[in-house]
Specification:
71% helix, single chain, 177 residues, rod-shaped, mainly alpha
Length: 177
């Protein structure tokens, strides 16, 4: 198995942990590895990400390379191929899980099912006697509990409950005549 002087230099740099190995690897192998990756991913953006990740993996695992077991390009090829396959799987999983807004009906709200009278409830509450309006406003529009409304309005709790019941009965006449 013959090794070119450039390959030997890269191997030496890798074994020493010298970052110059990355520059030489990129200059000499990036085009070939990109071609392999692109053939697998069929997407330039994914291929570029995979190529970058390949070089990161090469650097992180530089001490694992053994020139006695495989040629440098074979080792790089395997890392690139596996990275491309992982990226492709990840991309496909993410793509299929994303909401496809063009085909989604989430944002299409049917307006025919709304009772327009109900939508204007504040207007109808405004037609009630003021003592009922005050209680309904406190309970429904300000979000108070019956006890809080009693304390805030200085009206006995029993009276709050009675006015609520009567106010709701009067509103029911508007919505269910």
């Amino acid at each position: 198995m013959s090794i070119t002087p450039t390959e030997q230099k890269i191997i030496d740099y890798l074994q020493k942990g010298d970052k110059r190995a990355l520059n030489l690897l990129y200059e000499n192998y990036s085009n070939s590895l990109y071609g392999v990756i692109l053939k697998i991913t069929i997407n330039e953006e994914v291929a570029q990400d995979a190529l970058q990740e390949t070089f990161i993996k090469v650097w992180k695992n530089h001490l694992k390379y053994d020139p006695k077991k495989a040629k440098l390009f074979t080792w790089l090829f395997r890392i690139a191929r596996n990275t491309a396959i992982d990226k492709l799987r990840s991309f496909n999983n993410r793509y299929h899980k994303e909401v496809q807004i063009e085909t989604s009906n989430v944002y299409i709200l049917p307006t025919t099912n709304f009772n327009e009278d109900v939508m204007d409830i504040k207007k109808h509450v405004g037609t009630l006697e003021e003592k009922y309006q005050i209680v309904l406003d406190a309970l429904f529009f300000q979000g108070m509990t019956q006890q809080e409304a009693s304390d805030e309005l200085d009206i006995p709790l029993g009276t709050i409950k009675s006015r609520l019941k009567i106010g709701l009965r009067e509103l029911k006449k508007v919505y269910n005549p």
